[in-house]
Amino acid sequence: MTAEKTVSAIPDFRFTPSVDQVGVEERASRFTKRSIKTASKVSGLKLALNMIDLTTLEGKDTEGKVKQLCYKAQHLHDAYPGLPTVAAICVYPSMVSVAKKALGDSGVKVASVATAFPSGQAPRDVKIRDTKFAVNNGADEVDMVISRGRFLQGDYNFVFDEIAAIKEACGDARLKVILETGELGTYDKVRKASDIAMYAGADFIKTSTGKISPAATIPVTLVMLEAIRDFYYKTGKMIAMKPAGGISKSKLALHYLVMLKETLGDAWMNNHWFRFGASSLANDLLMQLMKDKTGVYQSGNYFSLD
Questions:
Q1: Domain annotation covers residue 55
Q2: 143 is catalytic
Q3: Which residues constitute the domain of residue 71?
Q4: Is 242 a catalytic residue?
Q5: Which residue out of 100, 167, 189, 242 is catalytically annotated?
Q6: Is the residue at 7 inside a domain?
Q7: Per-residue model confidence as pLDDT tens digits over 155-188
Q8: Which of 132, 167, 206, 284 is catalytic?
Q9: Which residues lie closer than 8 Å to 248 by C-beta, 6 or more apart?
Q10: Which of 23, 59, 236, 267 has the maximum number of C-beta atoms within 10 A of its C-beta?
């Protein structure tokens, strides 16, 4: 990739590019019709597995559950040697230190939601303290949610400033900015929110919290990937992408990878630049890989529940 250019003046977010809805949906549908040969399929399944953020974000989370998830991250299927690990474990800030200790030097990252996830309805100083708590306890990555209410009423400077403040609070941790696209309503708004997040300092842009429907979709993700591409052309800065929620089947994950490759290229085809927020996807990927290896599908009883 080329060296980063100097980021130009912050654009007027009232006038971000509009999105051709028919064109986006037509292009998105084409990605689901690609033919993938067996060898490429297996490579794609392993790559998708390595891009997953295994997640537990429930009020009933316990230290034991987090430790079990961390074990699974490192031992996805002991009957299949040579499998990659997942990319990260994502937990609430209160569980970061537990996950950090359980993962040790495995190379699996610890991500933490923050900023009053999933609603985002808290004062900025509370969000900043939430972020710093997670980072101080060892989080490598922070997943924040934007203030959708302020965005939808057109207060784009507020959203920009809040993201920038959280990015500063992250220190060396990478920041994933969740747009909650299912609440934004249109592709134009998804594009606008993506641009605001990237110019404000996001390391990732992410579709959803996974707590509402619709979550990630191929057309919405395409809009965000194209925003990343345009931002890269303008600034020389690569931004990562994370579709989250609603991606539970291997075939769908492969469609996302085809779209990623054809929109952004090979440089983004790794877990530093692309993630799946889809814990249930892991077991389906493992079932498909074992089918390729042994010729038969294993029962779901052979795979741990997340």
A1: yes
A2: yes
A3: 39-294
A4: yes
A5: 242
A6: no
A7: 999 999 999 999 999 999 999 999 999 999 999 9
A8: 206
A9: 278, 280, 281, 284
A10: 236
